[in-house]
Amino acid sequence: MAQTTGLSRFLNIPDLDKAVPDMVNCNMLSVTMMTQIVLPQMVARRKGIIINLSSELGRHPAPLAVLYGATKAFVDFFSRGLEAEYRSRGIIVQSVLPLLVSTNMTFNVAPNRFVKSAEDYAREALNTVGLTSRTSGCLSHAIKAFFCDLLLPEWFRLSSFGFKLQTNLWRRMKDTVAVSKRK
After folding, report:
1. Is the pTM of this model over 0.70?
2. Cβ-based burial of 28 (10 A; exposed 0-12, middle 13-18, buried ≥19)
3. How far apart are CA 139 and CA 144, in angstroms?
């Protein structure tokens, strides 16, 4: 799996020449190649489920995570198109777009109402299979995504002020986690 590039401007991603193909291979190539492997058997059986893990960062341009967000946008786009192509053949393709889940990638931020542990998130996301082809995976993430879209439209998030606000929030989250780990 590709190492997380952290939060930085595209040209400041450490070892960019390696990070780009790693991220593309991990988030894009693996999804298409695995689909190529499993889909023929599903078509033959006329049933199957493919669950692809995208990210909320793939729904909108994501300053400081543009490479990650772009590869996750591909996963979502690919999944939605594949769902339309194969739904009539009994195959469910679901795109899952989580927000923060407590993992190494999110600095193991403490779970709370809006941050799920990986286990809790997976359990809740599996409950959405067959209900929708595109999901935040759990109710708390769906609510947060809805209000972020409503209160922080894309034009604002991509403005200079919105960019500074996001940068400060990301840094504060990372610093908060670092301080709590030292305790």
Report:
1. yes
2. middle
3. 9
